Amino acid sequence: MALSEADLVAAGVGRDGPRRTKVIRPVAFSIRDLWAGLIGLSAYTDLLVVLSAHRLKIRYKQSMLGIAWAVIQPLALMIIYTLVFSVFTRIKTPGVPYPVFAYAALLPWTFFSTSLTNATNGLVSHAQLVTKVYFPREILPISYIVAALVDLLIASIIMSGLMVYYHVSLTMQALWLIPVTLVMAAFTTSCALIFSAMQVRVRDIGMAMPLVLQLWMFASPVVYPLRQVPERFRDYYVLNPMVGIIENFRAALLGSPFDSHSLIISTVLSAVLLPLSYLYFKRVEATVADVI
Amino acid sequence: MSSDLIFNNVSKRYIVRHEVDDDATKHPWIRKINALRKRRDEFWALRDVSFAVERGETVGIIGHNGAGKSTILKLLANITSPTTGEIVINGRLSALIEVGSGFHPELTGRENIFLNGAILGMGRREIAEKLESIAEFAGVKAFLDVPVKRFSSGMYVRLGFSIASHLDPDILLLDEVLAVGDAAFQEKCLTRIEGLRRSGTTIVFISHDLAAVERICDRVILMRRGEVAATGTPREIISLYQKQIEPSRINTMKTAMEDDRAVIESLAFLTPDGLRPTVFHTADPLVARIDYVAHHEVRDAVFEIYVRTGDARLGDLTEICQLTTETSGSPIHLPAGPGTLEFQCDELSLQPGIYHADVCVKERVASEAINWQYHAAMLRVDPGRITCGQFYQSNRWKLLRRTHAATSTQNGAGESERPSGARRQSLTPTT
Hints:
The structure holds two protein chains of two kinds. By secondary structure, chain A is mostly helical. Chain A has helices at residues 5-14, 31-42, 45-60, 69-88, 98-120, 127-130, 139-165, 177-201, 204-218, 231-237, 241-254, 260-291; one strand at residues 21-24.
């Protein structure tokens, strides 16, 4: 035996300390559940860290290019879109060369789409685990988002290379990247929570995801600037939270004019959606092991 | 004394969706539409269950499959939520349910220890401190940096158990985990569990292994159809449970196909000495005795015993094995009158569990039985010679040493004169 008798006695002594009391009740849709969920989540921060690191490790084990894949995807898309939108047809970009313009938007977009693609299957692909062990299930989808955030950082290295090459310099406005990224992370998390929970019951969600993301990208100012959207549609257009996020992520990076109107809409929508999606997720979580 | 676990009027409902039966000849679209209106049935796995487990107590929960044991475990482990009622858990709880799920094959042993430990609720620092001890207990110290896909299944299971057992929980949930690994490791696990128990850990043990329940539990709860049927000392409750599954008397169900030429009166499982123990062990010798009365002469009779496992009440039985006179020995001629037939088994192949036996007598040429008794006897098997797998294969073994052909012909007592370098061990006979 690995533990001696003395160890066991010592463990017994330590056990007399204060214990956490947990009460399990049927789920309700309440603020109290929201709070209880967050408390439970905070006890598992180490799992989130380990699992996110695990995502990155697994992805690049047995692959030759390894971590370079984080860069390849946005880079390849940038090259394709540059060919299509600045060589074959011309899209007017305000002041910056098209490759920089596109890549600055593809950074946040790739983050969003990779997160959602992976997180949607987060619960279903861990069915074995979910039916055997308890841990706050939201950690599964969230770990994919954390991993995608690391990819975003790696892909940013290319961004700096592009900016040096095209003589675009970083301004103080770049500080706005922090709040914009936060809003983006919040919105991505909300979507990931909702989709991964729905995917448990209806697998169509995962099937539809590539198509949805494709449409969503063209409904966001990734390959074209926001101001090219006709004035009369713009009020509806900005209701897509990704509009404010992407437009202003790019603006912050390239020092171009900010669009605070769309950013406020994105922030408000994300702030409302996040707690609601979390409550919804927690509700599904209660019986997820029965239906998965 | 304070309670570590409290179940307060807990009920759990499952919604069972039935596929609507549909024949394949219909158009696929019509079948699709039909599939949409699946029948929804409710199934109450637990109904108004209340009990408490005191601090430091070891409580066993036994009952048929489908009596609600696993549901209790899932609720305690928070894997699923109750439909109504309330569960209070006082302290750090960890569940040892199917250890090793959650290993990732590509990751190394070390990485998996961190991942699995974190899933079970350990902090990174705590895992780092215990890493050494975990690897040692599992006996995989030399393989910590090897991907676990290269591990043997035994190593896999041992590592899983080792991680989980290093949680130092206040409350430990155990579910048939002792049925894994080899005998030596099982003993190690039991010792470990008894160590935890002595140090004051509250344990809830859910098992079919009545012997193990008797060995480690202070108190036993018997579940029946989602309700608590009885609570008491292991001895009391286990014998109550056995009485419950042992049919009070034969002829619980008569079949339409029987005729009156012969009737089986009883089936009993005995030791070779004719004793009637309550329990057998794997690899024990066993005699199955059939008492019958033939009212008319039967020319070419065949006796058969079917051993089944599962829940007799639900009719959910799987056939495990059959004893028959059909394929061996000489034909049986039954004159009118009472008689006894015995099947003798030198070594019982059944794995630990509770089995039900049907017995029948028929005529070799006829397709229908003369007399068939359902659930004529119950057979309880506890761990004896422990093996992995579906059944115990009786065997003897010997070690054969192959010496050099040239030298062994000369020397009768060649064992002591083995030339060095020619020592080889072989598992197969060399003659």
